[in-house]
Amino acid sequence: MKFESYSFAQEILSAIADCGYKEMTPVQRQAIPAIRRGEDVLASAQTGTGKTAAFALPILQRIAEQPKALQHSNTRALILTPTRELAAQVADNIKDYGKNLELTVHTIYGGVKMDTQSQKLKNGADVIVATPGRLLEHIVACNLSLSTVEFLVLDEADRMLDMGFSSDIQKILQAVNKKRQNLLFSATFSSAVKQLANDMLNKPKLINADKQNTTAETVSQVVYPVEQRRKRELLSELIGTKNWHRVLVFTATREDADTLVKELNLDGIHSVVVHGEKAQGSRRRALREFMEGKARVMVATEVAARGLDIQDLEYVVNYDLPFLAEDYVHRIGRTGRAGKTGVAISFVSREEERTLKDIQKLIGQKIRRISVPGYEVSSRELLLKQIQKRRSFAKKKQRSDNAGEQMIAEKNLKGRHVKVGKKSNNVQYKKIK
């Protein structure tokens, strides 16, 4: 089905065409009519399904049909996202869709000065894309009122709750205009997400674009068994010998990410890093270098797992498997988007085999394994035998050492008298021969 079927304004259709959109995705086909009718929506949609356009296009259409003057420190549409990167990405998409409209879009997130943002907010906006924490700061500081909000969108709702934004979201719901349309998009429906939906939605239209926790058919998945201490060597070798470019690598911790980037750069592989401890300016520069092809590799923690829309991303590498099996789906969803193919590579140490089993059970398929000569991982049974052998040797050596010590002690005692007992008040001695 084409976008022309829903009678969008010509300005919007022209912008959509410039974005290269032709056929609607499943979530767009289901969500757009419901949103155009003014219904609340509860949608299950993975990243890469086109959900940003699914909620943004009908909102822009309503703004185009019913233009209003900007109101001081207020907005018509409020979109909440879990991370700065996703907020910036969503705002950029909305600006692209509305480039032929007289549209004001502001992004509000931490890592930048409050004063700069408050000055922009004074004049009002048609659309504000924000992270919950920084948005609440502006509300408390009276820099922003939500009394005229017509559309409230929660994007990646499950992720926001996972990151601890539940309390902030509840406070925002209390502050926002009660006469509004609510749109909640989530990759998974945990009990917390269901409770949030119950709190904010009114008879919502239920949309399930894809079976939950499935991976795209356009993504080829492969596992490389490797010892934890040799993962960096294997990554460098694969990037070099296979000539990989545009590689997004996920690590378990910020420290691991920083260390890996330093070592890859020493190997001559230009790499950048993105994680929560980096300043916002640094994160933007890193992402820009990577998207422009100046950096071959971008190493990231879970903060970049969702929301980032990196065009033509070829490879996603799980340097460390995620702690939650569900996050595997979100990570590899960065590649193989918009009908293009991609490759998801996972380095799996012996200690991560159980996590791999959980992932395979979740996605309902077994992932192909490739062993690289020189990086083989010894079997658990062989390892246990080697450990037992070392322990037996250690015990044998200890017994031998004890016997030697006894012989030396006996030699040193020869010719000496030692106390061997006590009878009445007389101490008895014996000469060692």
Task: Explain this structure.
By secondary structure, the protein is of the alpha/beta class. The protein folds into three domains: 206 residues, 3-Layer(aba) Sandwich (Rossmann fold); 151 residues, P-loop containing nucleotide triphosphate hydrolases (Rossmann fold, 3-Layer(aba) Sandwich); 52 residues. It is built from 15 helices and 16 strands. The strands form three sheets. It has a seven-stranded parallel beta sheet with strand order 3-4-2-5-6-1-7, sandwiched between helices. It has a seven-stranded parallel beta sheet with strand order 10-11-9-12-13-8-14, with helices on both faces. The chain has a two-stranded antiparallel sheet with strand order 15-16. Helix 12 links the parallel strand 10 and strand 11. Helix 6 crosses helix 8 and helix 13 crosses helix 14. The protein starts with 9 loop residues before the first helix and ends with a strand. The relative contact order is 0.11. The model has no long low-confidence stretch (mean pLDDT 85). This is DEAD-box ATP-dependent RNA helicase RhpA. Belongs to the DEAD box helicase family. One of its GO terms (molecular function) is ATP binding.
